[in-house]
Structures are given as C-alpha cells and as structure tokens.
DNA sequence: GCGATTTGACCTCC
DNA sequence: GGAGGTCAAATCGC
C-alpha cells in the first residue's frame, strides 16, 4: 500500500491561501528545533550535531522569510503541478485508502455532505518494556465507537472519537490499525483537530496528560489503544482552509530510525510534544519533478541506506525546503509496507 | 448506575 | 455490490 502526504489539498486552494498555514508550520518547526538545540546542548554529545542544528534553523528561517516575502506569484506554479478536477487521475489515493474520501477533495465534486477535516497519520510502536501492546496515549480522551475488518488487512481498524464530541462538539476522530508487516507498529490516523477544552490544555511543549488508571486498564483490554510513543507523525492535511486548527498541527517530519537516534541520544530528553513534528508532504505519482525526496531516494532508504540520520541527507532535506516550498509542492512518495516508523 | 467497549447493522460512496 | 465509516443496542467493568 502506498500512502501519500500532502502539503496541499486538491480543492484548488492556492499557495497564497495556504501561506499562513505553511508559515505557522515552519515557525512551529523552528521552535521545536530550538528546543532540540537546547536539549542537544545539554547533552553535549556530538560536535557534528551542534554544527548541524544551526544549519537546520537557518534553513527554516530562510523558508520563513521567503514565504513571508512571497506575494502569491506561486499560484500559477501550483496549478501546473496540482491534480485538478479535470484530471482526477492525478489525485493521489487518500491516506486512508478510501476512494470515497478522495472524492471530497476534488474540485467541483467536493462533497458538502461531509466536512473535509485535516488529516494526518502517525505511526506508533508498542514498547516491550511497558508490557503494552497498544497504541500510545496521546493525551486526549477517546471513545471507541467502532471496529472494522479492513479488506486486505490482517488486523481490524478501530474507530475513535473525542470523548467530548457530544458535550463540546469536538469533531476529532482517530483510527488505529495495527500494521500487517510489524504487529508492534500501529498506524494512527487523526481526522480533525480537537476543539474541546482538553485541546487547549495540551499545547505543544506541555507534558501530556497522564492516563487515569482506570482508563489504562480499559485500554489494555483493547488491542488498539495504547502505546509507548516511539512514533513518527506524518501529516496529511486535507483542509488547509482551517488555518486556526492547523496552528496546533504537526509541521515538518524529519525521519530518522530509532536505533540511530538512540545511538546519538539526541532526542532522549524530549517529550512527545516537544518533538511533535510531522510532514505536510505529499506524493502524487505524477509529481516526480517536484519531488523533494525522490522515489529513488526512498528506494535507497528501503534498501537500507541510512537516509534518515545521515547528516548529509538531513541537511539536504532542510536545505531543500525553501526551494520545495517555492515550487509550491513538497512531495514525498511513501511506501508504508516498507516503513519501519519514524521517531525522534 | 454510569460510562466505555463490542459488534452487527446500516449508511455512504464508488 | 463491495468497502469503509458510523450508529446504536448489548455488554462489560468500575
């Protein structure tokens, strides 16, 4: 199965419309990197890493200044590479694999029956030492409202909605499914942002709410619910019109293998919120020329190349951000089946 | 008793 | 008709 991450949606929204969102995302990523820098300095473990961080920050700053000074000339560029209603075949398959959800995103066919909500996917790995075989507690209260066997998948998908849906009208939902390839990894797709009170208390950088004992016991019953967060978060934003919501959204995902991270011990002191960065990246199969990370590079990754922690690649990734953003598209073609999971 | 989970039925979309 | 998503009654656990 191939999944795609989009930095843009396919409703014809221009980069100009998305610019505030992109700026917000980059700003958040910059802040997070500064946090990382702080922790990294505290650890004082690697000289090369110290040299790397300023470069990353510099790249983000460059991206931000380019975006802030940009006056919307990129719209036409975007139209040249974006799938359109007239050419629906250009539209990538949705991240959840549902052709129906795709139809909501395509131009004139936009369905008004269902609200298009920002969607992003995380991967969470169950942690052996916790004894839990369930996805991570993410700080929010979820209520399971369904479970479904998915065609072609070995494991059922659990459907969760915010506990405060009725009380506060919070529209956030999530779907959790154990991956076929590695049963210790869960794919968690979030749909919509929390608008409930608990969201206001879970700003990035703050510690997560500690699950109540009772809840933890309950979750243990369900194979879909808890995990120790050794995750990566990937963003697929379907609705960039909801700028306010996206202010709290993850921003940029910088993939790395957890074994490599543990080696460098860079992120060991970060909380999940601190490193909450995801990628608003996408990959229409037809967008090769705009690919920031080409399929070839990912194939190399799949073949074992240490793309994710290579300093060269990391720098290349961040250095490429400005040009990728300038070209209106940041695409990443991803193969879930060969994906071991991101972590920071 | 209350709230969460389970699970079969139903709905929506292709 | 098939697949994914949601509903809601039944069930469970505190």
UniProtKB/TrEMBL annotation:
The keyword Transcription regulation applies. InterPro entries: WRKY_dom (IPR003657), WRKY_dom_sf (IPR036576), WRKY_plant (IPR044810). Gene3D superfamilies: WRKY domain. GO terms for molecular function: DNA-binding transcription factor activity; transcription cis-regulatory region binding. Residues 74-92 have a biased composition (Polar residues). Signal peptide: none annotated. Residues 68-102 are annotated as: Disordered. One of its GO terms (cellular component) is nucleus. It comes from the Eukaryota. The keyword Transmembrane helix does not apply. Residues 131-194 form the WRKY domain. It is found in: Nucleus. Keywords: DNA-binding, Nucleus, Transcription, Transcription regulation. This is WRKY domain-containing protein. It comes from Papaver nudicaule (Iceland poppy).
């Amino acid at each position: 199965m191939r999944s795609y991450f989009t930095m843009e949606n396919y409703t014809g929204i221009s980069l100009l419309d998305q610019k505030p969102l992109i700026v917000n995302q980059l700003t958040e990523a910059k802040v997070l990197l500064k946090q990382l820098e702080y922790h990294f300095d505290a650890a004082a473990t690697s000289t090369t890493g110290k040299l790397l961080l300023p470069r990353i920050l510099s790249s983000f700053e460059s991206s931000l200044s380019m975006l802030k000074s940009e006056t919307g000339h990129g719209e036409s560029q975007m139209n040249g590479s974006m799938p359109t209603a007239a050419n629906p075949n250009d539209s990538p398959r949705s991240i959840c694999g549902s052709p129906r959800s795709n139809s909501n995103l395509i131009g004139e066919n936009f369905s008004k029956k269902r609200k298009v909500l920002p969607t992003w996917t995380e991967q969470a790995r169950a942690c052996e030492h916790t004894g839990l075989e369930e996805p991570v507690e993410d700080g929010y209260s979820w209520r399971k409202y369904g479970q479904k066997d998915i065609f072609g998948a070995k494991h059922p998908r659990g459907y969760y909605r915010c506990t405060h849906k009725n009380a506060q009208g919070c529209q956030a939902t999530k779907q959790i499914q154990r991956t076929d390839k590695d049963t210790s990894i869960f794919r968690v797709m979030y749909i919509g942002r929390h608008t409930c009170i608990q969201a206001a208390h879970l700003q990035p950088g703050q510690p997560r709410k500690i699950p109540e004992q009772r809840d933890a016991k309950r979750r243990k019953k369900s194979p879909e619910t808890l995990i120790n967060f050794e995750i990566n978060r990937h963003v697929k934003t379907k609705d960039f019109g909801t700028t306010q919501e996206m202010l709290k959204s993850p921003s940029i995902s910088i993939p790395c293998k957890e074994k490599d991270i543990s080696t460098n011990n860079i992120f060991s002191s970060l909380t999940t919120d601190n490193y909450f960065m995801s990628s608003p990246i996408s990959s229409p199969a037809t967008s090769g020329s705009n690919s920031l990370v080409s399929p070839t590079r990912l194939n190399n990754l799949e073949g074992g190349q240490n793309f994710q922690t290579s300093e060269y690649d990391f720098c290349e990734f961040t250095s490429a951000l400005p040009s990728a953003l300038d070209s209106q598209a940041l695409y990443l073609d991803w193969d879930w089946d060969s994906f071991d999971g991101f972590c920071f």
